[in-house]
Amino acid sequence: MHSVFRKNGPTHAIVEPSGGDTKTIYTIEPENIKTMLHTNFSDYHRSRNMPNALDPVMGQGVFTSNGKAWAHSRSMVKAQFSTQRVRNVAKIEPYVQNVFKEVGNIGKDGWTEPLEVLLTFNRFTLDSATEFMFGTSAESHLVAMREKEMFIANKKKRGLVAKYQLVMTDFGTAFDIALDYVALRLKLG
Hints:
By secondary structure, the chain is mainly alpha-helical. The protein is built from 10 helices and 2 strands. Strands 1-2 form a two-stranded antiparallel ribbon.
C-alpha cells in the first residue's frame, strides 16, 4: 500500500474497475481522515458495495452504514473511546505478557525460535481491543497457546496433524478467514 501512496500522493482518487464510474478516494493525511470521520462525516459515505460485502460478517453498524444509521452507530461506539478508558493501559498488560510468552525465551545465541509475528500481533490486537471495548477479552492468544500445546502433544502421539485442525478453533484466525471472504466480495462487487 505504501508504494501506491508514494506513486499517487497522500490523497488520491482511483476509478475502481468493478465500480463502473465510481471514484474511490484514498488518503493517509490525518486532517482528511479527521474531516471524514469527525468534522464533516455527513458529507462522506461508503460505496454501495461495502454494506453488501461486510454484512455477513459485521451486520449493520459503524462499518457498513451511511447517514443517520452510521451517525447512530458511531455515537454508540464513541463512548468506548473516552479519554478515561483510553488511559487505562494497565488493562492490556496481560495481553502484552501473552505476546512475550508466545515469543519465547531468548536462546544462548541471543535469538528466539522463529515465529509468525503477524498472527501474534493480530491476537494481541483482538484480545486488547475486545477487553477495551467490551470489558472482556476474546482470549484468542490463550486459545492459540493451548492449541499449540495440544498440537505438539498430538504430533508426538500420532505424527503430523493437519494444520487447519489447529487454526479453525482459534477465533482470531477464523475472523481473518471471514475477512478474506469479505475482501473477495468487495473485489467482485
